[in-house]
Amino acid sequence: MRKTGCIVLMLLILGWVGAWGLKVSPGAFCAQGVEVGKKIDTGLDIAIDNDTAYEQGFEIKVVPARIPSDPSLRGYQPLPDLSWFKLEKTEASAPPFGKAKSRIYFDIPAGDKYNNQHWIVSCLVQPKRGGMFRAAVATTYMIETKSKANPKERPFGSLGVAPSVLSVISGKTGKGFGTFKIYNNSSGSRTYTLSAFIPKAASGKLTINSSRNFSWGDPSWIKLDPVKVKLAKGEAAEVKVSSNLPKEINSSEILVFVESHKKEKNFIRVWLEKGGESGK
Fold it and tell me: Which CATH architecture has domain 159-274?
């Protein structure tokens, strides 16, 4: 069984973004398995290309992300506190035809409620000078905190899930099962609909990547029970995931999407593997 205790930085298909001669990388990434309660050096820099023959200064701001309308990114929520995403520098200078860089850190508070989260945040980069109209580029960064079954606190947010990564181990037959919980932390009763899906970028630019060492499978390889559940405020429910991997497939990943009738959204990564023991 693979563990999710360490950060896995996964660059999405959008490696850089640019506008009006301004180029910033990475344009997007997804960090999985982020631990809470400690400041983490991601080992990754925001890099800004200066394609001019003179030195340029740049401003880098952490800003709320606009939740993409693309259904392939459904289930992410805005980072609750922008101070949890830290930059080494909020101003940086690049020499002629050189780069400016600023290291990225995560500093999410301690608390079991902050595990099992899917958050999204942006950085806005623009030259310090440029007259009335300045080019500006916004990145898209996704943060998935450490997956944990049976957390001591209810997961943060109006719709919580635990674990956020469910490992379903099967024998040679490909059949196995596991369970996860959904939590109604909203202000009233909710009816939730669950479905298995594989993300595809409707925009052609950005999508959720599969986890390291996994590739996307077929949603028909898992069965959910129940597929619809009604919960009063403060209630939780357990959902069973049964797998049926084809003989020729040893491992795969499928997402389970959860949505309330009030449009609150979340998802669970389901890892399907043969051999070993099920569970997280």
Answer: Sandwich (2.60)
